[in-house]
């Protein structure tokens, strides 16, 4: 076949040119057959984009269209490659392959609320949280106290020992601090009348931040032990270590691991550094923000609470929480 009697066309597929030679009487259907033979693309997947003719696909509107009329035109083939078609066929085969039916797993029972736990959490807790209003950002101190109250380890220890504390408040950093030739001694916590009031030193001495959470939590464990034992005797330290271990074990946020690899805190006699406290103390009235003793009832609006007021407010809080628990339980039973 001489060059004068043949038609040469170039087809662009995925940016790659493919030149084909045809007899002068070849038609559009001959081009489609050649593409199938050379590129392995079935006619059903071929789309030929031809200038002025538009998109051509099988069945062609004019299959007898002579190819000589397409000379010098840019013909673009829109079709997947042979490899793409193979991957598609494999995917379809895999998707339609019969599979062994998976065993039907048994339905899991719906978790119901532990109302006994709810009642205990409402009863054995810190019923009132009180930051010091005279210092900057008391809302941050309140959030710190709430974190301690809601700590899963603290909650577990409170339930185990049936501790109910009317008031948890923060300590004035300037109070309960003494200086001597040996250095500065700071008290980190106080317990009034075996759990009537627990006071914690939350802020730093410079009032520019808060102390380490885990240190304060250990201090709280120490003060909770004073709910049972006042002096730092052997019985006290045994209970203190027991509470600390319970708090650490029940703290799911820490994976039930101990806070450190060290032994639990026990100050040495005569230490002039930061210490927990001087033992449980009793008598007098608690004045919020001052840690002083007062022998009369005082106005709560001024930020001061007497022993009678603390107990009354705690009893009221317990009554309201118990009533709310009963209402929630009744609603749950009606559903």
TrEMBL record:
Recorded superkingdom: Eukaryota
InterPro entries documented for this protein: Ubiquitin-like_domsf, WLM_dom
Residues annotated as domain WLM: 117-320
Pfam families: WLM
Region span, Disordered: 265-287
One Gene Ontology biological process: proteolysis
Keyword Protease: yes
The keyword Calcium is annotated on this UniProt entry: no
Full protein name: Ubiquitin/metalloprotease fusion protein
Keyword field: Hydrolase, Metalloprotease, Protease
UniProt-recorded Gene Ontology molecular function terms: metallopeptidase activity; proteasome binding
